[in-house]
From TrEMBL:
GO terms for molecular function: ATPase activator activity. Keywords: Cell membrane, Disulfide bond, Glycoprotein, Ion transport, Membrane, Potassium, Potassium transport, Signal-anchor, Sodium, Sodium transport, Sodium/potassium transport, Transmembrane, Transmembrane helix, Transport. The chain crosses the membrane at residues 38-65. GO terms for cellular component: sodium:potassium-exchanging ATPase complex. This is the non-catalytic component of the active enzyme, which catalyzes the hydrolysis of ATP coupled with the exchange of Na(+) and K(+) ions across the plasma membrane. It comes from the Eukaryota. It holds the Pfam family Na_K-ATPase. It is a single-pass type II membrane protein. The keyword Glycosyltransferase does not apply. It is found in: Cell membrane; Membrane. This is Sodium/potassium-transporting ATPase subunit beta.
Amino acid sequence: MSGSKQEEDRKGSNQWREFFWNPRTHELLGRTATSWGLILLFYLFFYLFLAGMFALTMYIMLLTLDDYKPTWQDRLETPGMMIRPKGDQLEISFSVSDTESWDGFVSNLNNFLSPYNDSFQVQTNDNCPPDQYFIQEDSGEVRNNPKRSCQFNRTTLEDCSGLLDRFYGYSRGQPCILIKLNRVIGMLPGKDRQSPYVTCGAKREDSDKIGPVVYFPPNGTFNLMYYPYYGKKAQVNYTQPLVAVKFLNASLNTDINIECKINSNTLEAGSERDKFAGRVSFKLRINEK
Ligand SMILES: *[C@@H]1O[C@H](CO)[C@@H](O)[C@H](O)[C@H]1NC(C)=O
Ligand SMILES: *[C@@H]1O[C@H](CO)[C@@H](O)[C@H](O)[C@H]1NC(C)=O
Ligand SMILES: *[C@@H]1O[C@H](CO)[C@@H](O)[C@H](O)[C@H]1NC(C)=O
Ligand SMILES: *[C@@H]1O[C@H](CO)[C@@H](O)[C@H](O)[C@H]1NC(C)=O
Ligand SMILES: *[C@@H]1O[C@H](CO)[C@@H](O)[C@H](O)[C@H]1NC(C)=O
C-alpha cells in the first residue's frame, strides 16, 4: 500500500519536474524557446502600442487645452467670500485704547489697498460705464487678449479707504471690514442691470449688539462692470471689487458673531451642501481698554 503511494508521489514529482523543464522536447514550463520568444515579442509590441496610445491621447488633450480659460469647469457655483483684514480664524478682536492691538489690522489693510490707489487705477485700468457687464469675448479663433479691466478706485470706499481716516475707524471703535467675492471665471452675478450686493447681520443671539452699519460703495454693491472675469492670464490688471462695512456703534466688550452674505438675482444662496457659498462669518470683539 505505502509502496504504491511512494511511487505515485515520485511519479507526481517527476511530472512536475518535467513540466518545469522537459529535456526530451526542450520545453520550459510547457513551451519551447520559439514559443516563449513569440510571447515576449507579442507583449513587447502590445505594451509599445499602449504607450503609444497614451502618448497620442495626451498630446491631443494638451493641444485642446487653453492657457486662457479652463477647458473643464463645473457648473458655476456661488463663490465663497473673504474678509480683510485677515485675523486669526476670522476673528477681529482689538481694544480701542491699545494701539498695538489694532495696528496690525491697519497695516494689513494699507498693504491690501495699495493697488487700489486712484493714481494706480488710472494708469492700469479703464473707466468703464457702470451697471453693465464689460464683455470682451474672443471672436472665434481670434484672441482678444490681453483684456482690459475696470477701475476700482480706493476713494469709492470713502470712510473705509484709509485716506480720510488712516486708522480705518479702529482707533474710534468703528472698525471697517472689507469683503471680497472669490473670483470665478465667466461668472455673471446679476441680471437686469441689478448688481449683487452685500448685507451683514448678527447671528440671532447677537442681533441687539451689532448696531448700525454703513456700506461703501453705497448699498454694498459689487458693480456689474467688474464681471465677467476672464482669468489671471487674460485679464492681467484685474482689480477685484470690494465692499467695505463699517460698524458704527457695535456693543463693546462682547463677542458679536456676524454673517455677511451676497444678494443676487442669479447666484443661489448657500445650500446645505456648501455652507460657505456666498457668505462669510466672523467674530467681532471691540474692547474698551
Ligand atoms: C497708495 O496710497 C497710499 C496712501 O496715499 C500710499 O501710502 C501708498 O504708497 C500708495 N501705494 C501705491 C502703490 O502707490
Ligand atoms: C478714479 O479716479 C480717477 C482719478 O481721480 C478718476 O479720473 C476716475 O474717473 C475714477 N474712476 C472711477 C471708476 O471712479
Ligand atoms: C496693465 O497695466 C500696465 C501699467 O501698469 C499697462 O501698461 C498695461 O497696458 C495694462 N494692460 C492691460 C491689458 O490693461
Ligand atoms: C441703493 O438702493 C436704493 C434702493 O434699492 C436705490 O434707490 C439707490 O439708487 C441705490 N443707490 C445706489 C448708489 O446704487
Ligand atoms: C450706541 O449703542 C448704545 C447701546 O449699545 C446706545 O446706548 C447708544 O445710544 C448708541 N449710540 C449712538 C450714537 O447711537
